[in-house]
Write a structure and sequence with these properties.
The chain has 300 residues and is an alpha/beta fold. Helices cover 42% and strands 24% of the residues. The protein has ten helices and 13 strands. The strands form three sheets. Strands 8-12-7-11-9-10 form a six-stranded mixed beta sheet, covered by helices on one side. A five-stranded mixed beta sheet has the order 4-3-5-13-6, with helices on both faces. It has a two-stranded antiparallel ribbon with strand order 1-2.
């Protein structure tokens, strides 16, 4: 049962989005019900919390003060929950994790599945978001930690651990490239290639390599979905260019092979585990972070 009142939950959602409709979409509550709660709250408090503008709702000074208090109460509540979880030890507990779409398959579901068997009392809530949004979400207290690609500098965040993920060729195990320990980028001109397209981040380093080396990639297909690229490779349509993390699951199962591309000008993809330096982590969150750190050290 939510600890915050219905009014405060609705108020915080409207304040975040500046729109009753968007708050309705997030909370899965009728917009009319949210509007009634906000109006009732303003009546009880005796002050207007939002300016109603053609472009949406904007907080008044009173609304800003209430939102600041709400966030403080939320942080205090999280700290209390952490202390209660610590009293229970690892028998029970919960943690919220932010991850990018690329981690919805592969090592993370496998790792969390094993933890579920050994620690069934720990409840994990996973939120799939874009990496460039995760820093702000962490600072706002939406999660305990995040796994993000190429994190930008934010003074509020600490990188607990990171791993460099190579870019390479993904092919069938029977393909000639699969027998190589590493490969030159020039091979991309010799075989039919299936390459990432925007908005996938991997299209940028491939474009940089083409410009730097003068190699013209023999592109036969482009896709803005990693799973689609892997599916086409599995069907023998060509060789893909992906990160090791993208193909980790299929490589472990022997369905695909991964050969890293060697080039001094090719920056690796960095996967980082980040936390808000001011957040007090629960026993459950610290435990799962440690397990991920161990996995990075042993497997990658």
């Amino acid at each position: 049962m939510p600890v915050f009142s219905r009014f405060l939950r609705y108020f915080m959602a409207v304040a975040q989005h500046g729109s009753i409709r968007k708050a309705s979409d997030e909370l899965h509550i009728a917009a009319s019900a949210i509007d009634r709660q906000v109006l009732q709250g303003e009546k009880i408090l005796g002050t207007q919390l939002f300016e109603r503008l053609p472009s949406g709702l904007r907080l008044t000074t009173a609304g800003e003060l209430l939102l600041t208090s709400c966030r403080r109460w939320s942080r205090d509540l999280n700290a209390l929950q952490t202390q209660l979880d610590n009293l229970k030890g690892l028998r029970q507990g919960s943690t919220d994790i932010l991850i990018p779409d690329a981690l919805t398959k592969g090592f993370l579901p496998t790792l969390l599945g094993k933890l579920r068997q050994t620690h069934p009392g720990i409840m994990v809530s996973i939120h799939v978001r874009k990496s460039h949004d995760m820093g702000e979400l962490l600072v706002k207290g939406h999660a305990d930690f995040a796994l993000m690609f190429n994190p930008g500098h934010m003074r509020e965040l600490t990188v607990r651990t990171h791993k460099e993920i190579p870019l390479g060729f993904v092919c069938l195990p029977s393909h000639e490239i699969a027998g190589l320990d590493e490969a030159r980028f020039s091979l991309a001109a010799e075989y039919p290639m299936i390459v990432p397209a925007p908005p996938l981040a991997l299209w940028r380093p491939i474009g940089v390599l083409e410009a730097e080396t003068g190699v013209k990639v023999a592109t036969v297909a482009k896709a803005d979905n990693i799973q689609m690229i892997k599916s086409m490779v599995l069907e023998g349509a060509g060789v893909g260019i992906l990160s090791y993390l993208d193909a980790y699951d299929e490589v472990q199962k022997g369905q695909l092979a991964f050969t890293p591309i060697t080039n001094r000008k090719l920056p690796p993809l960095t996967l980082a585990l980040c936390v808000d330096r001011s957040r007090q982590l629960s026993t459950a969150a610290r435990f799962i972070i440690t397990e991920i750190e161990n996995f990075f050290a042993e497997q990658f």
